Each structure stands twice: as structure tokens, then as C-alpha cells.
Amino acid sequence: MDGGGGGNRTRPNILVTGTPGTGKTTTCSLLADATQLRHVNVGDLVKTKNLHDGWDEEFECHIINEELVCDELEDMMEDGGVIVDYHGCDFFPERWFDRVVVLQTDNPILHDRLTSRGYMGPKLTNNIECEIFQVLLEEAMSSYPEDVVVATRSNCIEDISRNVAMLTEWVNDWKPVGS
After folding, report:
1. 133-156 per-position pLDDT tens digit
2. Is residue 23 part of an annotated ligand binding site?
3. Do the annotations mark residue 81 as ligand-binding?
4. pTM
5. Of 51, 93, 124, 153, which is least packed with CB atoms within 10 Å of its CB?
6. According to the 3-state scheme, what is the secondary structure of 117-134?
7. Can you give the residue ranges of every domain in the chain?
8. What backbone torsions phi and psi does residue 139 show, to the nearest 5 degrees?
9. 11 among the known binding-site residues?
10. Is 21 annotated as a binding residue?
11. DSSP assignment of 120-179, as one string?
């Protein structure tokens, strides 16, 4: 196993991250359809494969076991051609991703999306603050090389379409390192 990005992959790996409600799953589904890459929703994977350490009552979510998630994804990521969809990014190995996309949504829009999902109390406040303080962008910038990270608006369906088109073009132009 080499330490460099790309390794022996023939297709790129992409991480799509951002606060809950920024459109990650919609973006990833459309991108997977457009590129034939495999979409992995980490939240769903954690539930299906029990890759967690129980339930967090305050934030009403599973307490993800990062080590188990990474073990589960390792072989798939080495093969390449994967779009990972998750609202965190600092625990994935840097070598896995050729592109890290941070989706950003304006607060009033995000607030509406989250309340319509039933978010309230600390869970709602925490996620809105996360977006205000650009926590995920900072996490991405400190976890991956600057030229790999892209921050992009995700306020409406036009934004999502534009992001999918931009990423599809990037995937189609991608070449493995050293080819």
C-alpha cells in the first residue's frame, strides 16, 4: 500500500461533507447517477452494519465508531470510484480522497430544512452554529491538502445541479497520479 493519493485506483474517490441539511445525500445520489461512482451514505452504513457505540440522547443520533467505519470502507476506498457522504471528515485517512467537497447553505434555508426534518433544541442549535462558524470547512481544510478541498453553495436545486455538473466534469477529467 502506498502512502500517496491515488495509489492504483482507476477512478477517483470523493468526500461530500457539510452540516446536516446542506444537500449531501441529494448531491451524492445525482452525482452517482451521472458518473456511475458508488454512493456510500456513512449514516446509513453506521445503522445497517452497527458501526456505532450506542445512542446519543441529547443529539438524537448514533455515536459513530470511527475505527469500525474506516475498517468497513478500507477495501472499497482502495479500489476507488466511491462518493462518501458524511457530515464529518477529520477521521478518514487523507489518502482516500481525491476531492473533498464542503456544501454550504445559508442559515435561514438550513434552519427551514432542519426544522422540517424534526430537528429542535440542542440538535437544531448545534447544527446551525456549526454552519455559522464554518466548522466543517475548517475541519476539511485542516485534514486534507488545500488543493483537494472545494467549498460550494448548496441553497437551491440550481446550486445542486451546478455542483453535480462541476463534479461530473471533474470526475470525467480525473487521471490517476502518475498516469
Report:
1. 999 999 999 999 999 999 999 999
2. yes
3. no
4. 0.94
5. 93
6. CCCCHHHHHHHHHHHHCC
7. 14-173
8. -60, -45
9. no
10. yes
11. -HHHHHHHHHHHHTTHHHHHHHHHS-GGGEEEEE-SSHHHHHHHHHHHHHHHHH---TT-
Which pLDDT band, with edges at 50, 70 and 90, does 7 fall under?
low
The answer on pLDDT for 67 being more than 80 is yes
pLDDT, tens digit (0-9, with 9 covering 90-100), for 114-139: 999 999 999 999 999 999 999 999 99
| Cβ(18)–Cβ(103) below 8 Å | yes
**25 annotated to bind ligand:** yes
Question: Is position 26 annotated in a ligand binding site?
Answer: yes
For strands 99-104 and 149-153, give the pairing: parallel
Map residue 82 onto helix, strand or coil.
strand
Q: In the CATH hierarchy, which fold is given to the domain comprising 14-173?
A: Rossmann fold (3.40.50)
Cα-Cα-Cα-Cα dihedral sign, residues 130, 131, 134, 135: positive
